[in-house]
C-alpha cells in the first residue's frame, strides 16, 4: 500500500507539476514583464473559474467511484457512467452561462478592453470540455493508471508554459498570455481524451439518462456540493471579497502572487490525497477494524507538514532568488502562512476515506461549508479594519477547522473508532507555523539547523510507523 501511494503520488505530483516547476524557474524572466494589476486581474478570473469548476460534478464523482469499485470487472459501470456524463454535460451548459454573466459583473475596469476575449477563452472549456475531462480523469484514477493522467498533464502543462512565456515576454500581452495559454492547453487536453474514452472505451455521454436514477444519485451526491464549494470559499473567494471591499487590483495581485507560491505546498499535499484516497477506500474493505488507516494517515501527516514547514521557512530566500520584481517580492511574509495552511490535508483524507466508503456524504458539509462561510464572514469584517493581509490568518484557521473538527462534530468515530489525536496535530502544526514565521528573516544557518532538526524528527517518526505497518 505504501509503495503504491508513493508511486501514484509521484506520478500525480511530479509529471503534471513539472511544468509548474519549470514555470518557477522562469519567474526571473517573466516577472519583469508583469505587474500587480496583471496578477490581480488573472487572480479574479481564476477565482471565479475555480469556483465554477468545484461544483461542475455536483458531487457525482463519488457515484462514479463507488460504481466502478463494485462493478469494474464487467461492463455494468459503463451504463451508469454514460448517463452521469450526459447529465454533467447538460449541467455544464448552465454553468457556462452563469460564468459569462458573473464575469461581466465582476471584472475590474482595467480589463474592459479585453472583456469578451476573457469571457470566450474561459467559458468555452466549461461549456464543452467538462464532462469528458471528469470521466477521463476519474477512469484513469480508479483503474490505477495514473501515468495516463500524468503524461497528458505534463505535455499540456509544457505547452501552456511555452505559450504563456512567448505571449508575456515577446508579445507583452500581460495577463492575457495566461488566459490564451490556458484555453489552448485545455483544448489539447480535451482532444487527447476523445479516442481512448469516447471511441475505444465507449464511455460516451448518454443524454437520455433516466431521471429517477439520477435523482437517486443526486440525493447522495448533492450534500457534497457545499463541501466542495467550501474549498472555493477558502481558496479563491478571498480575491472576490477583496474586490467587493474596494481593495485595489494591485493589492489583490500581491495576495494572488503569494498564493501561487503557497500552491507548491498544496501541489504536494493534494497529490498524496489524490493518489491515496481510492487506494485507501479499496483497502478499507479489508482493514476497517484495524489501525492501518490511522497509521497511513499519520505517516502522510508527518511528511506533508514537514514539506510545508521547509517551504515556508525558506520562502524569503526563494523569493529573493526567483522574483525579479520588488513589488511582488514583498509578499513573501503572507506566503509563509499560506504555505503552512495546506498541512491539514492528510487528516481530511482520513475522513474522506471513511465517509466515501460508507456513502455518508452528508457528514462533509457540517465542517467544510461552515469553515468556508466563516472564512468569508471574517474577511468581510476584518479586511476593512486590518487590511487584505488578514485574509491569510482566516484561511489558515479555516483549513485547520476542515482538517480536524470532523473528528469531533461528525459520526466519524462510530464508523472508525481508532483515535487520531487531532488536538496534538493542531498544536504541532500551529507550533511549526509560529516557528517558521518568526524565523522567516533569520540567518540561513539558523534556518538550516531548524530544517535538519525537523527532518530527523520526521524521519524517526515515519520509520517507526512504517515498521509498525509491516
UniProtKB/TrEMBL annotation:
This is Oligosaccharide flippase family protein. Its main location: membrane. It is a multi-pass membrane protein. It comes from the Bacteria. Keywords: Cell membrane, Membrane, Transmembrane, Transmembrane helix. The chain crosses the membrane at residues 12-34, 40-65, 86-108, 114-132, 153-171, 177-197, 296-315, 336-358, 364-383, 390-409, 442-459. It is found in: Cell membrane. It comes from Formosa undariae. InterPro entries: Poly_Biosynth_Transport (IPR050833), Polysacc_synth (IPR002797).
